[in-house]
Amino acid sequence: MARNRTPIVKQSRREGFALSEKAIKIMARRTGAPGQHAGKMGNKPSLYNKQLREKQKVRHLYGLMEKQFAKLANTAMRRPGIAGENLLVLLESRLDNAVYRAGFANTRRASRQMVAHGHFTLNGKRVTIPSITLKAGDVVIARPQAKKSNVFMAVGASQADWLDVKAKDFKFTVVKLPTRADIQDEIHEQLIIEFYSR
Prior knowledge:
This protein has 198 residues and is α+β, with helices and mostly antiparallel strands. It is 43% helix and 9% strand.
């Protein structure tokens, strides 16, 4: 199954949730779902529809394909603890998301591409798999060749307390695993678990 190449703003309007910084600006001017007849259906959405839309929103937010997302949800439900929180921790702990949270990329799409192109090392070894799950103590560093390229021109501030970021060295360490409190996005994870529990 091919990755969704639909423009991020169009996806955001469909889900009613800004999936990127760019979408925030445009959605302030253009509200509602895209399309000629959007918003003309006055029926109250069903529980299934709410669950589906929440699942799609979070899947698009983290840039995963359906098979990947379903696999993470099933893993979260098998682990001890609250399944919804387990799912969010698994999503946040992905290498591409950590690169984004560390401020080394403006979007998750960009961070996934940076990882896939081999711009980082994990504990001293070059990695090209964005879905790697990080654990406490892991150290991620940009490779010397990558630091000279334009991909690191827009390094921003870290968005995660669970990462110790050394921006000048293009390096971060996973201090601890993220918790639900570390994830500020407006997500109703229980709806996603209910969707996969049907």
